[in-house]
Design brief:
The structure is a homodimer.
Chain A lengths: L4 E8 L4 H13 E10 L6 H13 L2 E6 L2 H5 L29 H15 L4 E3 L15 H15 L4 E3 L7 H10 L24 H13 L4 H4 L1
Parallel strand pairs in A: 1-2, 1-4, 2-3, 4-5
Chain lengths: ~220, ~220
């Protein structure tokens, strides 16, 4: 039995499978859980509705923050409609064209600025360095450096929790099952093409399907 | 004589005295200088026009990036019209009410994301830890941690240059004179209340006046 902390936590909730699992992880550990999600002009905007619905489902305060800078920068397949999402992992040593430079750094910095107002020090994010994608801002060493930056830059003892950091997709599915998050995954969105039901073809869909298959669990999103 | 690097640099240009001095500093050292400025809903929006005009004056590419997240977070005197800018420095151990948590972290992260697209590694910012204000995200240790975060998070060897970090306002004025930036300071904006001519009363105006006075140089903005 995990003992709940009296402290609060802010969960970066994208509306996807991983961040939703992290929300349930946080609910087990913190008494005052809040979620933030970012409208950064993502092509798969259905995520935003999923995030709001999931937060409402579990009864936590939810804040959607605008972040128009990323689409203004452009040049990536997640916010720029003129660029197709790569259907294959990027070549060795290259970043995928869905890489939005600094995206997770911005998300966590803004989550920290939001948490700062409520005197909350614990931040939770669903990033995983085991992801095929190779986004450098999802790696543990980057987040260690970011945690230090946020502590110094806002004078708060922030802790960035990354419960999925070293889990495979299979293990993330098993974790979701063990903490009662499985049903809620029916409300999540994963598909990079914003399709519902999911396209099943994009790297995000393929990765999700593989995780459920290896865990031997049916994806509740597909049963819905 | 300083030898110019063939490299480029991105200068965070607010349109104020310090960042304009940094722009001239960068022009001496880098061949491809670009400037970015942020529209974050600041009360003193006249800064944005100043930044654009200064960049045009020296003939560098200028990018204004939107950053609506900060005003959405609210709760500070720089973006929230319902909060008066403190006319006194904050009490010992307290942050001034013009502190926008994470503002400089966001500016530099976005500047890095912009620089990333042009394969530029050098970033220049006019922050100074000698400022009365005590903003923790202007200190050298914060920027050291941020530099490491940006390097890891975007896989680029970013260098954050802070030419004014340990200079007093007097020394910054003398530096501006020595690199030919003095005339351009007539185009800058400093006043926290957005007034032009400056209000002369807010902490930013008082600090600027003190610097010119101690340097024994007339502020070209007041002569204009």
């Amino acid at each position: 039995m995990i003992k709940k902390s009296d402290n609060g936590a802010v969960v970066v909730l994208s509306g996807g499978q991983d961040s939703t699992t992290c929300l349930y992880w946080a609910l087990q550990r913190f008494s005052d859980v809040r979620t933030v999600t970012f409208d950064y002009g993502q092509r798969h905007r259905i995520e935003l509705d999923c995030a709001a619905r999931i937060a409402a489902e579990v009864g936590v305060a939810h804040q959607q923050l605008p972040l128009d800078s990323l689409s203004a920068l452009g040049g990536n397949s997640l916010t720029d409609a003129g660029i197709a999402v790569g259907s294959e992992p990027a070549a060795e040593g290259e970043l995928p064209n869905s890489f939005v430079p600094g995206r997770n750094l911005l998300f966590l910095t803004l989550a920290a600025a939001y948490a700062w107002q409520f005197e909350i020090n614990d931040l939770v994010t669903g990033v995983a360095q085991t992801d095929y994608s190779g986004y450098p801002d999802c790696r543990q060493n980057t987040l260690d450096a970011l945690q230090q930056t946020l502590r110094l830059g806002m004078e708060r003892e922030f802790v960035i929790h990354t419960p999925l950091m070293n889990l495979s997709k299979k293990e993330t599915v098993l974790l979701a099952q063990s903490i009662g998050a499985l049903e809620a995954l029916a409300l999540t969105h994963t598909c990079y093409n914003g399709a519902r039901p999911p396209c099943g073809q994009c790297p995000a869909c393929v990765l999700r399907a593989k995780g459920f298959e290896e865990a031997g669990i049916a994806d509740p999103l597909l049963a819905a």
